[in-house]
Write a structure and sequence with these properties.
Order of helices and strands: HHH
Helix content: over 70%
Strand content: under 5%
Number of strands: 0
Number of helices: 3
Radius of gyration: 36 Å
Largest sheet: none
Shape: rod-shaped
Length: about 100
Amino acid sequence: MPVEWLFASALIGALTSFSVWAYISRRRLEVRTRELERSLDHHATELESARLPLLRLSAEDSLTAVANHEPGDLVARYHRDEFAVAGPPELVVNRR
């Protein structure tokens, strides 16, 4: 009879130890999950705030800005004539 009690108490002790370990591990994972979630939210906010200036800068064209503000018609015509392709290379006449 004492061997069965010894075995039962060892089993109960092992199960209790496992339960405590599982509880502590779960709590650590919950804390780590909350930290990662806050970090993700922070980085998502940073990315969104960086996206707006990047979109603005990517849409900004210095040539277009000059063409729209200064003697734009002349600049636009120059660039249109200089860089336009009218057809196959043998049909394009050099305007210079």
